[in-house]
Amino acid sequence: MMPKGFKYSAVEAAIKKPGRLDLALIFSEAPAVAAAVFTTNKVKAAPVLLSMERVKNGSIQAVVVNSGNANACTGQQGVDDAFETTRLVAEGLGLPDEEVLVSSTGVIGQRMPMERFRAAIPKLVEGVEGGTLDDVARAIMTTDTFPKLETRSGSAGGKVYTIAGIAKGAGMIMPNMATMLSFVVTDAAVDKAWLPKLLKDAVDSSFNCISVDGDMSTNDTTVLIANGAAGNAPLRPDTPEGEEFAQQLRDLLLALARQIVKDGEGATKFVTITVKGAASTADAKVTAMAVANSMLVKTAFFGEDANWGRIICAVGYSGAQVQTEKVDICFDDVQMAVNGQFAGGDSEARGSAVLKKPEFTLTIDLKQGEGFATVYTSDLSYDYVKINADYRT
Predict the structure, then answer these.
(1) Could you list the active site residues?
(2) pLDDT class for 157, splitting at 50, 70, 90?
(3) Does residue 212 have a pLDDT over 70?
(4) Where are the domains of the chain?
(5) Region 304-331: what's the mean pLDDT?
(6) What is the CATH code for 6-262?
(7) What share of the chain is helix, strand, coil (3-state, %, to 5)?
């Protein structure tokens, strides 16, 4: 079941190379409210700069997105190209330019092949009668190995609504956000003033809790569009129905975030890192991310080496409040360190056995307070280097 009142299209524009879908459109048939979260990188791509301005009015009916070219570090011409892309789509759909967002992903520093956009956009607009959200999910892929799509449903005032979301991302994955794009649509009516905070909170507990390689892109974008086609009264904060919707959104984004980590470039392991007993939630999060981003830890995961010393080292430089003599470390239920020292016995062999699994949990207990956080990461393999060494070719 998909949200009512949305149409989709995806075409091949051969933006980077022929043979795949690479230009996509999401269109709400009715006026909709929207919110977005963007990269915090100080170097922002032209489509990010344009969309940041347009989403401020909270009313958006369409998003056009391409893969193969990031339109980043392309100067004024890049900005002009982003404007032209939205203008062509707006004209085709009969919308004001301001109702269209634009998003891009791909190679940085190269001009957009606008002649290909001009040729493909009429076909893109015509295709909205027959496309699917899965088509869009495939068109935005770069080094992804599979499309990422999730749906959730709920009810408000006796009206059933649906939330559907897609995402792309496999490398340059780091919170705030990642080299990722995500587009979420819902036919629920949602209070326009609440939407930005609703989305930000959901992103903080999902996309901002993952790491593949500790890098951050120039194009990261998450957009949420609500068109109210379900017919419910607008959902508001601090109400049971509003909280149910917020939980459904958090759950959907977390599922997409987990898919991104599982599809990490060259990844062979999916690792849940839980930090408990921290002095604060912030300390727990910073500790977990320090471990998740450690190249030495990630290569140990790939090598299936139960080297807990690398983990406690990352804990120590994380900036959190730490006392070495209190730190416990476990791989699943295997205790590797107790009070900052090796647990002894057969822990090494049992810990290595855990690391041979495709999914496992690393738990770190700091014994400093009640702070708790969970983040998700992957290992770092030979294939990661191969994929990124050949990215532009």
Answers:
(1) 179
(2) very high
(3) no
(4) 6-262, 270-389
(5) 97
(6) 3.60.70.12
(7) 35, 25, 35
